[in-house]
Amino acid sequence: MLPSALPSHEAAYALTVHKSQGSELDEAHVLLPEADTPLLTRELLYTAVSRARERVTLYGPAAVLARGVQRRTRRESGLAERLQRPD
User: Fold this and answer.
1) Are 24 and 48 in contact (CB under 8 A)?
2) Contact 51, 25 (CB under 8 A)
3) How far apart are CA 32 and CA 58, in angstroms?
4) Cα Rg of the chain, angstroms
5) Residue 87: its pLDDT value, please?
């Protein structure tokens, strides 16, 4: 089939959530993992859904989404303790 015979369409691209940071799209589709994973956190989900200006669609198990929303990223840099220590 010749490209000219195809119906009108727009190119689509797949990005990871991390690669999409700083991007803004009219519409985003987010594919969740089939099983819960510690990498799926509230902050990652926020980054994913906030890329869309008009519409976002999530695909995946509701239980995985619910668990991801409940999980917060824990940062353990030790910076707070270092700043509180007198020199």
Assistant:
1) no
2) yes
3) 7
4) 19
5) 66
Residue 43, C-beta contacts closer than 8 angstroms, at least 6 positions apart: 72, 73
Q: Report how far residue 4's alpha carbon sits from residue 11's, in angstroms, rounded to the nearest whole number.
A: 14
Interatomic CA distance for residues 63 and 69, integer angstroms: 10
Report the C-alpha gap between 76 and 8 in whole angstroms: 50
Q: What is the pLDDT of residue 59?
A: 97
pLDDT at 56 over 90: yes
Give the strand pairing for 25-31 and 52-59.
Answer: parallel
Tokens standing for residue 30: 């987010």
> Strands, E, within 4-86: which ranges?
25-31, 52-59
Question: What is the pLDDT averaged over residues 58-86?
Answer: 89
Confidence bin at 32 (pLDDT 50/70/90)? very high
Token digits for 21?
């940071």
Read off the pLDDT band of 15 (50, 70, 90): confident
